[in-house]
Amino acid sequence: MLVWCKQCNNLLYPKAERNSNKLLYYCRNCGFEEPAVSNCVYQNEYLQRDRNVTRVVQDVTTDPTLPRTSKAHCPNCDHNEAVFFMSEAYGFEKGMTLFFVCCKCSEKWVDSSTR
Question: How far apart are alpha carbons 67 and 61 in whole angstroms?
Fold first, then answer.
């Protein structure tokens, strides 16, 4: 939360008043001070992205460089042939994730054992 000086419109900075154990905001330009409304000086908010979205090129099933398996089970059409690849799409802290793409219907899914 940014607080502005009521006298000169400059940014107010947090300052701890050690004697009374209170938080103040003060202006470095004119010396104006006012008590803080909250004890929170800084709040970092993260935007949460939907990490389940996999962006795969439409013709990935025809790519001859990707490995294929006949032991996969498509959740959409029950076909057993799929191409697969690994990616860090779920974040570095979770490691690599194995993605499958059905060769019949192009359905995409994630191997649950690699999560």
Answer: 10
CA 114, 80, 89, 65 dihedral sign is positive
- Could you tell me which residues are beta bridge partners of residue 110? 99
User: Which residue(s) pair with 85 in the sheet?
Assistant: 99
Dump pLDDT digits (tens) for 42-88. Answer: 777 777 655 555 566 677 888 888 899 999 889 999 999 999 988 76
Distance CA 74, CA 78 (A): 5
The pTM (predicted TM-score) of the whole model is: 0.48
Gap between the Cα atoms of 11 and 20, Å rounded: 23
Q: Could you tell me where the DSSP H helices lie in the chain?
A: none
Write out the E strands in 1-115.
12-17, 22-27, 33-35, 68-69, 82-87, 97-102, 108-110
- Provide the pLDDT for residue 115: 45
